[in-house]
Amino acid sequence: MLSTFQYPKFEYIRPPEIAEGRDGHYPVIIVGAGPVGLTTAIDLAQQGQKVLLVDNDDTVSLGSRGVCYAKRALEVLDRLGCGEEMVAKGVSWNVGRTFFREEEVFSFNLCPEPDHHRPGMINLQQYYLEDYLVKRARQLPNLEMRFKHNVIGVTQGEHVATLRVETPDGACTLTTDWLVVADGARSPIRTMLGLDIEGKIFMDRFLIADVVMKAEYPTERWFWFDPPFHPNQSVLLHRQADNVWRIDFQLGWGADPETEKKPENVIPRIKAMLGDNREFELEWVSVYTFQCRRMNSFNHGRVLFVGDAAHQVSPFGARGANSGIQDADNLAWKLKLVMDGKAPATLLDTYTDERGFAADENIMNSTRSTDFITPKSAVSKTFRNAVLGLAEHYPFARALVNSGRLSVPSFFTDSCLNTPDADTFSGDMVPGAPMDDAPVVASSGGSEWLLGHLGDCFQVLHYVEDADALPPATAQALAALADAPIPVETLVVANRGAAPGGLKTLLDTHARIKARYDLEPGTTYLARPDQHVAARWRNFDAAAIRAAVARATCNA
Questions:
Q1: What single-letter DSSP state applies at residue 338?
Q2: Which parts of 198-319 fold into alpha helices (H)?
Q3: Distance CA 405, CA 362 (A)
Q4: C-alpha span between 446 and 468 (Å, rounded)
Q5: What pLDDT does 3 receive?
Q6: Model pLDDT for residues 493-539, shown as the tens digit of each residue
Q7: For the CA atoms of 110, 112, 118, 124, what is the dihedral angle to 10 degrees?
Q8: For the purposes of burial, counting CB atoms within 10 Å of the CB of 37, is it exposed (0-12), middle (13-18) or buried (19 or more)?
Q9: Residues 6 or more apart whose Cβ sits within 8 Å of residue 544
Q10: DSSP letter string over 175-228?
Q11: Which of 63, 68, 340, 342 is deepest in the core (most CB within 10 A)?
């Protein structure tokens, strides 16, 4: 039990397959009601897909576990209808500081630009995120959740996957057209199917201590190398909701996990850090090792892996849950198009291609961070300490300091779904890029941010200075895109006016869209359902847009 959070108990309901003595078939079954499984289920259900989500537990995660959620993950959660609760409850921050012994040697700002809706990062205990996601899931009538349902066997054929599920009332058999596996790093289903995961386990141990206390420390990420209160090791401090502070102590590989978790051993470490006079309550303690591993392929026939079931990284950099949420963001729209018969199953291969690339990026950055934080030889430790000593005074050394390169979205610039540029552009909004946010005023009301109007379908952004002056023929051609086999919604971006024909107009109130997207009159962008750029042109061309949609859905 925690002093700051009351765990919900989700009701077990006897499944109809047992009550009626029959097998059950579902178009999509998702296994695992953690953040990634819930995100995937909500995304699919929000698009109108019937989904069954099963989990072997009946509550949310024990302990704070994942606590850092990056700007891109928050933007995905906004699209799914639960980002606002996250940000309201969480602790927002942008600044991180790194110390060597007692001196600050490096700092960073995750969101140096103005006019973004979400902060670079929020800190929030994972049990809150899961609780909010469950509440959102229950608002969707085509999403069924079953708790205390433990998958004990999986086989797959050409057209369906078959699950054997154990419940308090006995076992039953379920079949599904598509099985999404979100059952965590140890993934029993991955083992059942005999699938490998490859990578590296790091020989070190860290102690997590969640401490309830009132403190005046700034809302920032603080990381120490070799501090006087924990010599020759590293320490990380984060503030969470409810005056809970996360402290990570490096222990070394030789530490005994069970011994280190005992309060009589944890409390002296915390007192050495905070001082004997500060009052605190020890809420949750865990000892962990970490690894950087991934499956070679995330899609296997009718079975698709997401989150930690597909790839794992060390916690430094907050790349675990953030990456998993982006897996769901990438997979859901592709799977829905395949299920609706609007795209071939080969579109799912691009899920592995794109999110496999992201996993490789995360593993590379996570491995480099871990090697810097926990040097494996005297020579590497001497180099690390020399870098830290120089960083206080010399900019070149600050670039080498690595206390965890924090989660950022991947740019899928080499994806086969992109239509390459035929025109000249500047800036970051290249095909394959996650789309930047900006403030807007919409003709139809709604969100005051660009990303609040993007997502869940293909969309065109067409820029004109005066929307009132949009030629009628262009307005009709833009509107006609909505009648295509894969509909495309039009958003007219303008400095003033309102587009004819009922087209939604977004006024670029701070000229941020124009700057960030390098807009000129006539510039047109095609956005994917996951808010990534699919293509862009300097002039509107309906045929080019249709060809780009075909390419982005493997229909070309």
A1: H
A2: 257-260, 263-274
A3: 9
A4: 21
A5: 86
A6: 999 999 999 999 999 999 999 999 999 999 999 999 999 999 999 99
A7: 30
A8: buried
A9: 419, 535, 537
A10: EEEEEEE---TT-HHHHHTT---EEEEEEEEEEEEEEE------SSEEEEES-T
A11: 68
Check pLDDT > 70 for residue 274. yes
Q: Which of 4-13, 163-172, 392-401, 457-466 has the lowest mean pLDDT?
A: 392-401
Q: Give dist(CA 545, CA 539) in Å, integer.
A: 11
Residue type, 509: T
Question: Check: CATH 3.50.50.60 for 16-89+122-196+292-365?
Answer: yes
Q: Beta strands of 378-434 (E only): which ranges?
A: none
The predicted model scores a pTM of 0.96
Chain-centre distance for alpha carbon 146: 24
Contacts 24+ apart (CB under 8 A), 473-477: 474/540, 475/499, 475/500, 475/501, 475/503, 476/501, 477/540, 477/542
CA distance linking residue 479 with residue 546, whole number of Å: 13
How many CA atoms does the CB half-sphere of 330 hold within 13 Å? 35
Please say whether the beta carbons of 552 and 437 come within 8 A.
no
Q: At what angle do helices 320-339 and 71-79 cross, to 10 degrees?
A: 40
Residues with Cβ within 8 Å of residue 108, at least 6 apart in sequence: 95, 96
Query: Alpha-carbon distance 439 to 452, whole Å?
Result: 10
How confident is the model over 156-182, as a mean pLDDT?
Answer: 97
